[in-house]
Write a structure and sequence with these properties.
Elements: E1 10-11, E2 26-30, E3 33-34, H1 38-45, E4 53-60, E5 63-70
Antiparallel strand pairs: 1-2, 2-3, 2-4, 4-5
């Protein structure tokens, strides 16, 4: 994960076994909560139990894409 991007968000630089999330995606929000630092993302993800379905908005190739990811 790389933080501090010029347009806000968290870039995925390596991924293992997460459906629909790709290397190079920039996560900009999770369940409509903006994230731009790893601590923001951790706070959101730890607020619900394992197995929760998350709606993430990512920037991919210049477009915003919504994906669902189960924790």
């Amino acid at each position: 994960v790389r933080e501090g991007l010029p347009d806000a968000g968290i870039e995925v630089i390596a991924i293992d076994r997460v459906q629909d999330l790709e290397e190079g995606d920039v996560i900009v929000n999770i369940n409509n909560v903006a994230v731009d630092e790893r601590t923001d993302m951790a706070t959101v993800l730890h607020s619900k139990p394992a197995g929760t379905l998350w709606r993430m908005t990512v920037r991919r190739s210049g477009n915003e894409v919504s994906i669902d990811v189960r924790s």
